[in-house]
Amino acid sequence: MFEDITINEAARLSNTLWVDVRSENEYAEDTIPGSVNLPVLNNEERALVGASYHHDGPDASRRLALQLAAPKLPAKIRKLDSLAGEKNLVVFCWRGGERSRFMASVLDTMGYRVYRVIGGYKSYRRYVNEFLEQEELTQRAVVLHGLTGVGKTEVLLQLGRKGLPVLDLEGLARHRGSVFGKIGLPPSPSQKSFESSIILFLTSIGDKGVFIVECESRRVGNLLVPPPMMNAIRNGIRVLLYAPLAERVRRIREIYTSGPGDNVKQLQEATSSLVKRIGRVKVEELNRMLEERNFDPVFSFLLKYYYDPLYKYPEGPSPDYSICVDTTDIERASEIVFNFTTNLPEYQKQQGFGGKLKD
């Protein structure tokens, strides 16, 4: 028999596949991040069943729903077979009603390990909204600071591979920040989806006392970092990363020119948007160099005269930070930050979930 669990409990499960059994339109509007859509009824069928409920009553509408849904079950099972593997299935509908009960029963009969979310998607949105009303997280943020190009994201990803809980806000937003931040990246998610991804991350890390995050402003592209996360960043344990200008230029070149045509057109458009800050003559000069693929002088100028004055981070060690790390060697820098983090008292604490809400 499938098991009914709360959204808090569902988010803590490991090796899961979330299954949204609502219609395509409901799924497209918003869903729990990472969910696959396996609608019991499609958009048109849902409308027919709704009309039957109002005209003929609940019993007739249930029979109609079964008549519409049953013939498609073999195809849905085949789809899940290709996606689920040995994963636990977490099934939800709009409010934990007939659709999720029906699909959970079928999947349980087929031998899957199935959980059903009590209250469905509505309980999830309530969970999200309660999180957004918090002022503080119970977990402490270790915050990576540093000038553009020092390798904050690279260190973050290395720490994740070493097993530390890392939150890549720019990765979730699909935007690196600033006017150049969208170059070479896919479309950004909706604000709801961005918030959901942050909250599910905090839920998933369970009893970890800290998590690692880059310092971000409130806005990442067109998305807003939720207030509780911004407070965690502002009040976090400050780690400064630094590197020589030449190394920063090399990293920027690798990141921003790895695309069709070296992303020259996008780079020129972004540079042109700085005309009020650096002047038209300089913009035209930089764009000519971009056209010639003479990238390093362009990125060196932008770092020294645009990005560095904008962010105002130290170029080397500073007493204003808990630890300062040279990132010329990313592997070594990541190891230093790893050792620093795992020796923090907060890392040893069993504080529970950072965004824990009432079940």
UniProtKB/TrEMBL annotation:
Keywords: Selenium, Transferase. Its EC number is 2.9.1.-. Residues 12-133 form the Rhodanese domain. GO terms for molecular function: tRNA 2-selenouridine synthase activity. Pfam families: AAA_SelU (PF26341), Rhodanese (PF00581). It comes from the Bacteria. GO terms for biological process: tRNA wobble uridine modification. This is tRNA 2-selenouridine synthase. The gene is selU.
